[in-house]
Design brief:
alpha/beta; binds magnesium ion; binds 3-hydroxy-3-methylglutaryl-coenzyme A; 12 helices; globular; 298 residues
Length: 298
């Protein structure tokens, strides 16, 4: 049987916006977060404490964290690639921080300017300091299904980096298909490798939809019991260091599928579509989400 309940981690404000060339104002970012939580999302990845030279769109990280109206029933997370990022993030009082490694050496170099081994060494004190502050640490494992630079990524390499992340105390692992090339059986195999080191409730799927496989991959993940997924409203997103990769699976599309399966997400799809229409309007384009387009055309 499939899980009866799914937790969605809304990554639109972070993954969704990080790739946008035109600066989105702090006010619009905070308004997006407000609409997402009003739609019933209880986990929101708000911003990144990364170098503003590398990702200019996230430069207003502290201002965004100060501008959001926090709700007691919502958990807010932020990306922290190193101690400098963590120290800045601590001022913003997130519930969770995210360190991000890759199962590909080439991608690790392009995205965070260091090898996989160096990244793990860099994350270890980040995890320690986050835990000392009572903050949970999620790890993202990029390129778990393929790499834009080196192509194939082996399951053994996925497992090796998952084990290293667990060894430094990372609490949760997000298996990420950065460029959206994964297909269902392969996704199940990658998740199974992660599940050797993390419990079912602490493994999630982060699927970009470049090749249109993301919903199928979520269904395949449900079959192995995984019940936490990242998704991005309106299908926004992409990684600046993964050229050509499109957005994450659209939250609207995931909620529509899960509603049809009778799986509870707590999300109101109409309010979610409003949030997607709002941010798409700010960006001057239509939502990528097929469900949003269909519902807006009604
Ligand atoms: P570096 O250049 O090697 O860092 O970058 P450095 O330690 O040598 O420092 C260089 C400069 O950056 C210094 O400033 C530091 O102070 C500053 P300067 O002295 O030149 O003025 N700096 C920082 N500033 C602000 N916040 C920080 C920070 N750290 C150093 N935290 C670094 C290394 C990791 C910082 C850089 O490569 C970086 O910021 N990378 C982030 C790239 C990124 O954000 N990618 C997108 C997010 S990951 C993603 O999208 C994938 C995911 O969605 C899953 C998936 O789909 O696969 C999660
Ligand atoms: Mg991503």
């Amino acid at each position: 049987a499939l899980p009866q309940k799914v937790t969605l981690v809304e990554v639109g404000p972070r993954d969704g916006l990080q790739n946008e060339k035109t600066p989105v104002s702090t006010e619009h970012k905070a308004a997006l977060v407000a609409m997402l939580q009003a739609a019933g999302l209880t986990e929101i990845e708000v911003t990144s404490f990364v170098s503003p030279k590398w990702v200019p769109q996230m430069a207003d990280n502290l201002a965004v964290m100060a501008a959001i109206e926090r709700r007691a029933d919502v958990r807010y997370s932020v990306l922290t690639p190193n101690l400098k990022g963590l120290e800045a993030a601590l001022l913003a009082l997130p519930h969770e921080v995210v360190v991000f490694a890759a199962a590909s050496e080439a991608f690790s170099q392009k995205n965070i300017n260091c090898s996989i081994t160096e990244s793990i060494e860099r994350f270890a004190p980040v995890v320690q300091a986050a835990h000392a502050a009572g903050i949970k640490v999620r790890g993202a494992l990029s390129c778990a299904l393929g790499c834009p630079y080196q192509g194939e990524v082996s399951l053994d390499e996925v497992e090796r980096v998952a084990r290293l992340m667990r060894a430094i105390g990372v609490d949760h692992l997000g298996v990420a298909d950065t460029i959206g090339v994964g297909t269902p059986r392969r996704v199940q195999q990658a998740l199974e490798r992660a599940l050797r080191y993390f419990p079912l409730a602490e493994v999630s799927g982060h699927f970009h939809d470049t090749y249109g496989q993301a919903l199928a991959n979520i269904y395949a993940s449900l079959e192995v019991g995984v019940h936490t997924f990242d998704a991005s409203v309106a299908g926004l997103g992409g990684c600046p260091y993964a050229k050509g990769a499109t957005g994450n699976v659209a939250t609207e599309d995931v909620v529509f599928m899960l509603n049809g399966l009778g799986i509870d997400t707590g999300v109101d799809i109409d309010r979610l579509v409003d949030a997607g229409a709002f941010i798409s309007g700010v960006l001057g384009r239509a939502p990528v989400s097929r469900v949003a387009r269909a519902l807006l055309a009604k």
